[in-house]
Prior knowledge:
By secondary structure, the protein is α/β, with parallel strands linked by helices. The protein contains 10 helices and 9 strands. A 7-stranded mixed β-sheet has the order 4-3-2-5-6-9-7, sandwiched between helices. It has a two-stranded antiparallel sheet with strand order 1-8.
Amino acid sequence: MKSSVAPKKSLGQHFLYNDHYCRKIAATVAFAPGRTLTEIGPGTGALTRFLYPDWRDRYTGIELDRRSVEDLYKSLGPEIRILAGDFMEIDPESWLNPEGKTTVIGNVPYYITTPILFRVLDLKDRVAECVVLIQKEVARRIISAPGSKDYGILSVQFQQAARCELLFQVPPGAFFPPPSVDSAVIRMTFYETPPERPGNPDLFRTVVRTAFHARRKTLKNNLKPLIQDRPVTSVDLSRRAETLSVAEFVRLTDEIAGMQIPSTL
């Protein structure tokens, strides 16, 4: 479905219009009683057309472009619930399910992919799953295993909180205008009880980010602001962050938490 609204480069808009991929993405989220659906950036409704008939009063779209908001009302009807605004700024209580969990779906602008994903991660206790069409490179980073060049902060933080799957790729020709990079659909199903759970989630995020601060340096060098000169027994500090599993990062975090050293970060 070609859009009647011209894409804005300033908003990083690449409208998905290929019906085959729209149907395929919509099919990844089955309607579940008691759950709501929030679509990030529905644009002019190419994907929304395949979502809204099943979800109806349990659907919410969040769209920044006022032109697209008007187009959505015209094409799908005035009863559709669209919040006009920036997903990063809008109050989550306006779209989260007050009585249960929410599924999040969307074709996410490349330039703001990581902040959006971390925004969803912050709300993981209220979000059942997140299915997003993103740059393939970012998707690879999320699902990568320890030892891979793509394994990093995104991998550890999302794999600790969710089961992460790369579902399929979407070619540039499925968009208008075609992006210069490949895209992929990824699904993150958030755990009710994570297999590996740090005692201090905020410290876990700090440890992971600090450990990957300089990828070529050892943990001993990168973690010095957190551990100072204290000995660590949970992992070998001569290793690099990219070699540690999620479980090892959790154990390391819990050990650092017990040191009770004020952070200098």
